[in-house]
Amino acid sequence: MKSIVAVDKKWGIGKNNDLLFSLPEDMKFFREKTAGKTVCMGYNTLLSFPGSKPLKNRVNIVLAPEGVERDDCIVVHTLEELSKELSKYNSDDVFVIGGAMFYKTMVPYCDEFYITKVDADGEATVFYPNLDEMGFEVTFVSEPIETNGYTIRFTTYKNPNPLKF
Ligand SMILES: NC(=O)c1ccc[n+]([C@@H]2O[C@H](COP(=O)([O-])OP(=O)(O)OC[C@H]3O[C@@H](n4cnc5c(N)ncnc54)[C@H](OP(=O)(O)O)[C@@H]3O)[C@@H](O)[C@H]2O)c1
After folding, report:
1. What does residue 46 show for φ and ψ, rounded to 5 degrees?
2. Domains of the chain
3. pTM above 0.90?
4. Is residue 80 classed as helix, strand or coil in its secondary structure?
5. Which residue out of 15, 49, 101, 150 has the highest number of ligand 1 atoms within 8 Å of its CB and is therefore the one to mutate?
6. Predicted confidence (pLDDT) per residue in 46-104, tens digit
7. Residue 98 Cβ contacting ligand 1 at under 6 Å
């Protein structure tokens, strides 16, 4: 299982149930990495998408509170249900895509992380776990890329001891 996210200098990822920055190059990267794959997310992240609609060309699985049902994506209500659902897919093709609550729970189970680092402070109110403090290994850092006035770097981390989900 993999995780993908854009973080600011402080590992911030969002505020007001929205992203911190508009980053066309990162959106492109996200689309390319996750196209045709399975994405799983917390309910607030689904609500943060345009029209609160799931992402096209991907299997969308959402962990949502009891009572929430949707006919346009797969909804699960517990981590047990999520685990059962995810067992149907090749774990290399499953991406944890947010948000903060869901990342916090799922990071220990992921083995690879696509972390886009934005060289700015977005004054976030919600954060990604700090992978440097967790002892995960940086395996790739791209050259800096300019997009919409921001400097970003694509980085990859590996978790040497992922838990089994
Ligand atoms: N920068 C990025 O790449 C990126 C990517 C995705 C999202 N975001 C940002 O992240 C923010 C949303 O994050 P968030 O933390 O508010 O919401 P979230 O994790 O997307 O969703 C929270 C919801 O999902 C359920 N949930 C999530 N984890 C759960 C768990 N471990 N166990 C049970 N239920 C769980 C919760 O249910 P209950 O209500 O029952 O607890 C809650 O309703 C937004 O600002 C969004 O833009 C940023």
Report:
1. -60, -45
2. 2-158 (3.40.430.10)
3. yes
4. helix
5. 101
6. 999 999 999 999 999 999 999 999 999 999 999 999 999 999 999 999 999 999 999 99
7. yes
